[in-house]
Specification:
- With 176 residues, the protein is an all-alpha fold.
- The relative contact order is 0.02.
Length: 176
Amino acid sequence: MSPPSSNPPLPLPAKKRKVPPKTKSFHIEPPKKKKSKKKQPKEPAKLPWDQTLEECVAEAQRAVDEHFKKKEPEKKTPIDPKDKAFFLKMTDANRHKFIPPSDYDCSTTKSYEKKKRSARSLSDVPQLGTQKKQSIELLVVLPTVQQGLIEFLATSRLSVAQVAGGKIENHPIVPR
């Protein structure tokens, strides 16, 4: 063994631990419980079938008055003229911007125009109302009394003057 020396050996230094810097504690204390006040029980409202007629009418009138009372208009807050001018300019600028139609709008307008053009070429035959010279005479509808008179005149081969009171000529009968 070796003789004791005057200087004892130093102990090995311990590993240093990383200590976070000291900051304020974020520990939040729970809120203190409030002492609950004992609420006095309110008397329940009288039910309509338990009320007298006068009480019921008074309650109904109170509800009607409350419903139809005049409402106070909302107070308008003044708007700064600079802000007002800024927003008016912004809306005017957006109004004048050209917004191109969407693909759907383009396709629908295109197909509508195409259908419109093709419909014109298919209808080359003019309709009755659009013809210059009408091929059918106008239809005249007479009352039933006049229609019966016209049928009688046609079957009897009489003229209107003869029926109105003129002489009816008798033709001689030809012997056979």
